[in-house]
């Protein structure tokens, strides 16, 4: 009985602390620079797959007159063709032995579950 009570007490004490942990993104390589923006894009096509309990989700969206693929890394979204979604446009510039490389990537804003409200 004491073990159960102690377990419950520890869970009550440590759960808020674990939920409050701040996400720290990984550091950029030396000499690399990056910037990003969030833009609204229209979904043109949906790519999805479910395999052995795992899921994949990506969307073809219109961006500056071109069609690009915006990935949903966590596969938590469920958008349809015609929906407007927030897309993160990330630009990275990295020094390489052959010169500077400029890259661009597209991913959707993660839709995370809402945290419980504090009393």
Description:
With 119 residues, this protein is of the alpha+beta class. It has a domain at 29-108: OB fold (Dihydrolipoamide Acetyltransferase, E2P). It contains one helix and five strands. A five-stranded antiparallel sheet has the order 3-2-1-4-5, with no helix packed on it. β1 and β2 form a beta hairpin. The radius of gyration is 20 Å and the shape is extended.
Quick overview of this protein structure:
The chain is α+β, with helices and mostly antiparallel strands and 119 residues long.
Keywords, please?
119 residues; alpha+beta; OB fold (Dihydrolipoamide Acetyltransferase, E2P); 5-stranded antiparallel beta sheet; 5 strands; 49% strand; extended
How helical, in percent, are the residues? 10-25%
Mean pLDDT over the full residue set: 81
Rg (CA only): 20 Å
- The strand count comes to 5
DSSP strand (E) fraction? over 45%
Number of helices: 1
State the secondary-structure class.
alpha+beta
Mass-distribution shape: extended
Which sequence of SSEs, written as H and E, runs from N to C?
HEEEEE
Q: Termini distance?
A: 29 Å
């Amino acid at each position: 009985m004491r073990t159960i009570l102690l377990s419950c007490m520890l869970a009550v004490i440590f759960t808020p602390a674990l939920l409050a942990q701040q996400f720290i993104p990984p550091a950029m390589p030396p000499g690399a620079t990056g910037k990003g923006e969030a833009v609204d894009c229209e979904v043109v096509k949906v790519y999805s797959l479910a395999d052995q309990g795992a899921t994949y989700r990506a969307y073809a969206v219109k961006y500056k007159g071109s069609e690009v693929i915006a990935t949903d890394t966590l596969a938590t979204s469920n958008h349809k063709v015609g929906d407007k979604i927030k897309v993160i446009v990330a630009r990275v510039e990295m020094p390489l032995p052959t010169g500077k490389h400029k890259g661009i990537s597209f991913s959707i804003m993660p839709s995370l579950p809402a945290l419980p409200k504090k009393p």
